[in-house]
Design brief:
heterodimer; A: about 110 residues; mainly beta; six-stranded mixed sheet; B: mainly beta
Chain lengths: ~110, ~110
């Protein structure tokens, strides 16, 4: 069964304190790993797609990496506006299109 | 451009009533998905439409749930005889094709009294 586990559940950082969020996955035939950002009361906002081990994507202070078992979302010198819940999802080979989501990491960045 | 639009944004109803939730996908997107997000839980897949193909209904939790997509655009998710455990945020997403990133609406927050 395809499964996604995110850690930690919650993370508190001071502004400028870099850290990483983890997404461990078990999937039959990975066809994409996706990172989303979700603000309270809003739908998930697409950040990155990674398809193969070794791939990396960057956007502003965020960098996503992928291995055969997990993905990391690195946050460099975060700002308070980076506070949100970050969701990881995978699409497996048996999927017709739907994503399997983790429960997310709630990030709080204090000034 | 316009994103995925969902209505209503909030819905409060009594147990046993039927509800209809609407999703307007991004224009030109052939794939449309419904998910459910319960408090403290991850997003749970419900149903997937791709063009004119038969929908993937494998995520629907019971036969009280159904969905349709008219003209390859607007979709309606219907929940009959609502139960308290149906309370959740129902999210709709669309993508240009099956393997493209999904773009989400802001959801309908459904509360069953």
């Amino acid at each position: 069964e395809d499964q996604v586990t995110q850690s930690p559940e919650a993370l508190r950082l001071q502004e400028g304190e870099s850290s990483s969020l983890n997404c461990s996955y078990t999937v039959s035939g990975l066809r994409g790993l996706f990172w989303y950002r979700q603000d309270p009361g809003k739908g998930p906002e697409f950040l990155f797609t990674l398809y193969s081990a070794g791939e990396e994507k960057e956007k502003e202070r965020l960098k996503a990496t992928l291995t055969k078992k997990e993905s990391f979302l690195h946050i460099t010198a975060p700002k308070p506006e980076d506070s949100a819940t970050y969701l990881c999802a995978v699409r497996g080979g048996g999927s017709q299109g739907n994503l399997i989501f983790g429960k997310g990491t709630k990030l709080s960045v204090k000034p | 451009g316009a994103g995925v639009s969902q209505s209503p944004s909030n819905k409060v109803t009594e147990k046993g009533k039927d509800v209809e939730l609407r999703c307007d996908p991004i224009s030109g997107h052939t794939a449309l998905y419904w998910y459910r997000q319960s408090l403290g839980q991850g997003l749970e897949f419900l149903i997937y439409f791709q063009g004119n193909s038969a929908p993937d209904k494998s995520g629907l939790p019971s036969d009280r749930f159904s969905a349709e997509r008219t003209g390859g655009s607007v979709s309606t998710l219907t929940i009959q005889r609502t139960q308290q455990e149906d309370s959740a945020v129902y999210l709709c997403a669309s993508s240009p094709a099956q393997n493209q990133p999904q773009h989400f609406g802001d959801g309908t927050r459904l509360s069953i009294l």
